[in-house]
Structures are given as structure tokens and as C-alpha cells.
Amino acid sequence: MPDHVHVLVRVRPAQWAAEIMRVVKTNSSRWVREKWTPDFAWQTGYGVFSVSESSVAAVMKYIVRQVGHHRKVSFREEFVVFLKKNHIEYDERYIWD
User: Which of 47, 41, 50 is nearest to 95 (CA)?
Assistant: First the structure.
């Protein structure tokens, strides 16, 4: 099982990211514990990014290939590159559990 997961969710504009993540984490935790390991737990934080409809197919392709991709480039390295590329300010002390 990977140490990180990407999830693509189509939501309505009125839905809050925090509520969506609460539901995803709650339901997926139950499923993973029953299917694979009873000691599974999500990290405290999460990142939420919007994707245009025209990019959905590319994002889905990336998600399918993420395990192999992250054998070459770590998730942490890729995430920091993404933040920098999109001019998102961050403090590395607070983005990793």
C-alpha cells in the first residue's frame, strides 16, 4: 500500500473541502482497515486543488500511474515542486506529519 494517495472527486461549488475530506477519510479508513490493515490511519493534513474539466483525463491517468511514478520521484519532492510551480507559499515545518 502506498504511503500517499491521490483522489479525484467531482464536487459542487457549494461543497467545502474540509467536509469532503472528512467523509472521504472516514469511509475510506473503515474500508482499508477491513480489507488490509486494522492499524491504518490518515495523516492529519491534506492538500486540495481544483482541476479544470479539460484536465480531468490527464489527472486520472496520473493517478493510475502514481505508484510507478513515485518510484522515480518521491511524493514529497513532487509536492514541493507543484507548490513552487503554482506560487503557493508554504513552510516545510508544517506540511509533513
Answer: 47
